[in-house]
Amino acid sequence: MAEACCAAHAALPPVTGSRRRRLWELGSHAHCPVIGVCVPLERVRVLAKKLLVLQGDEDDYTLHCSLVTAAARRNAVAEALQKDLEQRFALDLRAAAQCKCSNSLMTWWRNRVAQGEGIAGALWATLTHPRCDEWLEMRVLGQIHMLQHQVGAAQRVDVARHRELAAEHQALTRDYAEVQQRVTAWSQERAREQQAWEQERMRQRATLIALQTQLAQAQEQLQHWQAARPDLPEREQLRERLAEQIERNQALQREVTRLSSRVTVATTAEAVSAALPADAEPDLPPPPVRLEHRVILCVGGRGGSVPQYRQAVEGCGAQFLHHDGGAEHKPAQLEPQLAAADVVICQTGCISHDAYWRVKDHCKRHHKRCVFVDTPSRSAFERALAQAATEAA
User: Fold this and answer.
1) Which of 49, 166, 210, 326 has the maximum number of C-beta atoms within 10 A of its C-beta?
2) pTM confidence score
């Protein structure tokens, strides 16, 4: 069969001339595969709607058959199809024009079919080539016919495979949707945490800025005071030395008072001994109250009795301090005197309420001995001193 075809091909007269064939010049058996392969279905619909008289209910097969019938002779439909194909496959036509004989054209066609790309352009360029004879046309159309069968079978396989892929795609889509929901929830949670962290960072930053501002203001104020008082360190040192000197003076004053009381007692005893007869035994008074090395604070009392209070306290060997309870002395002076005192005698009938509560609160907080006297007399004061000495003993 192959030898017969080759012999028939050898018997055909050679094709001469350089004019390419038109669509209507092809054999009637070529119009169907050319239009079916080379013209897309969308373009078929456009050309049929533009050039044919339609009823409106034609399907794609009817439109295809109408164009195939119209392409058998030269008319407006055939010329429109010719122009569309020439423009669509201009590159393939220029490539096929390099073939100068039927054998080279057949080789070019086979290469294009083997590559599997641009078969529509290769079909149009081969069938309309000046060197395409009837034998080559039949071979090309036969291959196209078989390719269409193979495409149909492959299409059925592709449909089955497509269904499988569609089912798999749906399953993957569901899984992806679940994963996307989890990722979205996680992202929202992270965003909320990030927002909370950002708010906390802003609060911490605001607090830090406020502290830095306060520190800067304090440093600026310190520099201002240091510039205004350049002798401030020396004054602090002098204040400390002054406090030490005051404490030392108080200790020395207590020692002087103690020694003075001893001298007074000795002098009185000698005078009494000299006044009595030699054989008489003196009627000695009871031993005096002794509060050596103590600081006695008297709060309140009459102004005229203060020297008597002082004499009574110093007679006991103690140091005397006095505050009038707010009559003339400032209440602020009471606190340092309370801190320096060892024993407090409060004349409750001659002080203000504020001084009374200050004395009571201070003695309670510092566990300091405090004797309250109702009557502002010397005898009552001396009894309070005796009570304080007894408690001290």
Assistant:
1) 326
2) 0.36
